[in-house]
Write a structure and sequence with these properties.
Shape: globular
Strand order of the largest sheet: 1-7-6-2-3
CATH class: Alpha Beta
CATH architecture: 3-Layer(aba) Sandwich
Structural class: alpha/beta
Order of helices and strands: EHHEHHEEHEHEHEEE
Oligomer: single chain
Amino acid sequence: MPTGLPPVHAWGAYSVPLSTAIRVWKDGGRRDLDVLLAGRLAVSIAASLSAAERLRGWSSGPVLVVPAPSSRASQRLRGDIPLEGVARLVAAGGAPHRSRPLRVVPALVHTRRVDDQSGLGMLGRRANVDGAMTVKSLCHNVVRGRRCILVDDVMTTGSTMAEASRALREAGAADVLGATVAATRRRPVDHRTGGERGRV
């Protein structure tokens, strides 16, 4: 796992049919799947909140929901930011966390060009996003001293979550957790090539 990876809860494994739904939602323009995926992300966020209450003292107060940033190229290609829309549906839905207000804050932005992560191995993913995120200047006062839940559609190696967590902590976030719709399980890295030996 990459250094700085926060505790992350995922609704399910990144496998068929969930993986198919995520792909067509994100890259195929199927925004009719927003509600379906928001329901699954809501469960992951609720699990993160429950664990935080038991283990990290998150007993009260509002929580910031911070979507992982999309690259500028992806935003241009898709014409929108699908993850942000799903996060806002979760926050507006109330249950299962009515007792704790959720505020969606798209605070993160890339500081340099990043490549599409899907074609990269573990080490390539880490290098691709290392030092590549920051909190927008207008969001520093919003993030400082607050508890944040990072959200993403899929966690593969954890590199994106770790880098996003670093950026939030550097901006003064009090604590950071993660929640995703899905997560992959991967075999160990082949250190001779820097690539992965296959998925579990």
